[in-house]
Design a protein that fits this description.
By secondary structure, this protein is α/β, with parallel strands linked by helices. It has helices at 59-68, 87-96, 156-168, 171-174, 188-197, 208-213, and strands at residues 9-19, 29-35, 55-58, 73-77, 100-105, 119-125, 148-153, 177-181, 203-204. It has 6 helices and 9 strands. The protein has a 9-stranded mixed beta sheet. β4, α2 and β5 form a beta-alpha-beta unit. The radius of gyration is 17 Å and the shape is globular. The chain starts with 8 loop residues before the first strand and ends in a 6-residue tail after the last helix. The model has no long low-confidence stretch (mean pLDDT 93).
Length: 219
């Protein structure tokens, strides 16, 4: 870091170790770094506690906390982590430290400029979220096989919308696509049946942490 330049700081809601509950890394012991703040207000959001509060920490303090958990996989999540200017620096520093790093982002903010070693897990917000107009579709062209797209569905109408996005943007040709039901709103068995019926080249996903602990924080 250049002399006289202040060390990056981040507002952190929590740092903890658990099993990864989502993505193709599901089930892997992972350190989660949850950044505070989000410009979106999805109707089914299960991490509203991360919208505000948190603790401002120097980047090195965050790295030291992650290291103390002694795990190989790290997931930077939120809130919306990219809402914090220092998030790209955190991601790069984690990669430099030898971790396998993933970023969970709403897809409403630019994912360009992220360290290419990071796997970007990008949401496409279906209409049932109330935030579909916030999708930054320019992000799709930036995705590669190292990344993933997640679409959370609250209804059959959301599923039909997802089908259209998959077709219009040839999403499975870019990266893995994961479809998830909103807990308590869409029967997982229905979604699984639609995927099989339509022979979709996607992965069905349940949030493992909610199956194990019924608690969105422990994931």
């Amino acid at each position: 870091m250049p002399a006289g330049q202040a060390a990056p700081t981040l507002r952190i809601s929590e740092i903890f170790a658990s099993l990864q509950g989502e993505s193709t890394r599901v089930g892997l012991p992972t350190v989660f770094v949850r950044l505070t703040g989000c410009p979106l207000r999805c109707l089914w959001c299960d991490t509203e506690y991360a919208f505000r509060g948190g603790e401002i920490l120097d980047l090195q303090v965050v790295l030291d906390d992650v290291a103390a958990h002694a795990l190989h996989y790290v997931c930077v999540t939120g809130g919306e982590p990219l809402a914090q200017a220092a998030c790209p620096a955190l991601l790069a520093a984690l990669c430099d430290a030898g971790y396998e790093v993933s970023l969970e982002t709403s897809g409403a903010l630019d994912i360009g400029g992220i360290d290419p070693r990071v796997s970007r897990i990008v949401d496409l917000k279906a209409p049932g979220s109330g935030e579909a107009e916030r999708n930054r579709l320019e992000n799709i062209a930036l995705l590669n096989a190292h990344d993933e797209i997640k679409i959370v569905l609250a209804s059959e109408a959301d599923y039909s919308w997802a089908l259209q996005q998959i077709s219009d943007h040839s999403l499975p040709d870019r990266c893995p696509v994961l479809l998830s039901p909103v807990a308590g709103q869409l029967d997982p068995a229905l979604l699984a049946g639609w995927i099989v019926r339509d022979r979709l080249p996607v992965r069905f996903q349940l949030q493992l942490h909610k199956v194990l602990w019924k608690d969105a924080r422990r994931r």
